[in-house]
Description:
By secondary structure, this protein is an alpha/beta fold. It has 10 helices and 10 strands. The chain has a 6-stranded parallel sheet with strand order 2-1-3-4-5-9, sandwiched between helices. The protein is globular and about 55 Å long.
Amino acid sequence: MKVLVTGGSGALGSQVVLACQQAGIQVVAPTHQAVDLTHPDAIAEMLKTHAPTHIVNCAAQRRPDLCEAADEDVIALNVLLPKRLAAFGVPLVHISTDYVFNGANAPYAEDAPRRPLNAYGRQKAEAESLIETLENVLILRVPILFGPIANWSNSAVTVLAQNLLNAKGAPVLMDDIAIRYPTFTCDIAQQILRLLPEVGKRFQGIYHYSGEEAMTKFTMGMVMAPMVGCAYAQCLPDHQPTKVPRPYDCHLSTRKLRQTGCFVNPTPFRVALQKTLTKGA
Length: 281
């Protein structure tokens, strides 16, 4: 097996690469400087050069402001890239998001109607619709992620710890409206490795993987504050709606994946967070 990982320098992609290496699986992860994933010819050349037997697509533009602008590069990455990768014909695991739902009717099964509230969710939903019936594709929806990463600011979870440290004792506002289910990237990487050999055989279509602890960013911040030497008082709940609309509760049901017999049990949030934060900012 030779696995090609797109987005291999990101929070999840880097852990997929590491998990492959630790398992003795041949893996390649071209950098975005080496391959322009928004350009069809560059994608085709990458696939021809590396000739992978399996692909894991972790590449995406997640910044709300850029997604809302929806320029050509964002559409190419978030909407068109999965279809272009799937066209190569080898088994593909495509990472999608809980934001394809509007958050009004949790928990969500895989076949629940997609009703995204913002541009990122709409783009990921459109990408799913282009590939979900292909026999060589498994779409894995995941929620908010965190895990070992060089820059804590590149995760919507650990950025809270970075903000606390940067504030040097001053209060930090943290959203206390949206219910999130923080999920450890190391767990997702292990789950992908369990599924990958059977994609296009036993596994095809949409599956969900998620942590099971319901938290707001404020309650996450209250857990991590003492871990980075900050006071609880620095964490202030923010009850103002965000500029870009976000769903209230997109809890993903993992029942379907659990029934496969190869489900990876999520690491408890505090345990996973401790492992993450001890890696250093």
